[in-house]
Predict the structure.
Amino acid sequence: MSDQARPVRVRFAPSPTGFLHVGGARTALFNWLFARNQGGAFILRIEDTDLMRSTEESTGRILSSLRWLGLDWDEGPGVGGDFEPYFQTQRLPFYRAAMEQLLGRGHAYYCYCTQEELQARRKAALAQRRAPGYDRRCRYLTNDERMALAEEDRTPAVRFAMPPEGHTVVHDLIRGDVRFANDQLDDLVIMKADGTPTYNFAVVVDDMLMKISHVIRGDEHLANTPRQIRIYEALEYPLPEFAHVSMILGEDGSKLSKRHGATSLAEYWESGYLPEAMFNFLALLGWAYDDKTEIMTREEIIQRFRLDKVNPSPAVFSRQKLDWMNGVYIRGLDQDDLAMRLLPHLLQADLKADEGMTRRLVPLVQERIKVLRDAVELVDFFFTDKLHYQAEGLIGKKMDAADSLQALRRVVDVLEGVPSFDEEALERPLRELTEQLGLKAGQLFGIIRVAITGKQVAPPLFGTLSILGRERTLARLRKAEAALLKLVNDDRV
RNA sequence: GGCGCAUUCGUCUAGUGGCCUAGGACACUGCCCUCUCAAGGCAGAGGCAGGGGUUCGACUCCCCUAUGCGCUACCA
């Protein structure tokens, strides 16, 4: 069914009723990748016909998340295009025209049933174990009956007249042919009584008018596709290609929701995931290049992406794997780049960092953070002189307080006399001291670590000392000395 | 209820009838490296949902069952 070389035009069409969900982001990404791979156009259209739930703020959030991920659109909000407008609420005349066309050709009809009646009948049908679909009673109304209903002041909706028999086959690029019996398709409302179109109608009209060649969207729309196909045909317009990508699930296999943790792209952005890592990770959710390649640049992914290689089964969003991948990308960043990305996170955590200081910290954290925000607790001790730790933590492994105190005093002596606080200048004498004291490196360095950072787990020692500087280091060591002395004395009492 | 989609290690996946004694990655376990934590190296454990066919031969094709999910709205 491939049309003879229609230019590739795909679209992502979110409804602005919240933020951009990772599932939506993946759908957008696949559309974008396909467009870029094919040299086609990626169009963004805002489906805001749900007046009650749509907000402008939400539109803004979605756009900024897309930009963050690096998915630029060729047509749509902010950039315009040949098929404006790109907001459905501004396209009402188009839907009305299409509706008139269908009405005129007998492919659609007015339905005077009220929502209450519909609901009651659906309930009754379900109770009797009958199919709950619309019973088509308005479809075969005589003119007189129609007039009578109209007099009652009922504002009609418009329904699409489905062919009552036969079947409709959806040719799906990911799933193959999917066959639906037409008698399963009921006469869906295409235009609500308030004059706004329903989703299934608006998408068809928009995709048609915007000359969309490939409809790549979530799996949940597959069952709607035969209805849409019938509308295309009634409108006498060639079908686009369809590709339905599977859903993204939470760790427990159920539909991804808030209780699974972060679901919006913005949350990942805020906690310090790199857009390039998220891009790579999302691309691999339901698609793979081969049996081993995972880390790929944006360009490599564009070049390698194939729609027919997309996996039809749902995928669980694995935070752990994302974390790993983000770590890989962080480690791959050059130091200045990482510093610039880190700085806002440090500032946000109220650490009084500046560019220069952040640059110096980078080598200390680059290998040990998975998300940018992790750096905060790794380096916070540089930004305060009030350390909170238990004095017991100053006692070295397999040592007692008195031994530790003695060792600490020797450390102070050594560091007072050391000519420079460069890493290299520090390491030699401290290692020699361990030997003199008959201690293992871990014992002595552990004591120093706690004394200057207040933590058992911290970045490498010499780099830390060097950045902290002689004065602050010695001050912290002396405080630790005092704390240990107190411990020793308390023991004696 | 009806219709539809899906089902390979815990997770993401490779696999399109013999290359599979099923490959890679995350996570996990052990060892190595090591000033803690990481990072890194090596090794290990772990899977074709179940049952029938088709075939000389099925992870791969067909059917059934099970399970999960979606649609069945004047939501999108």
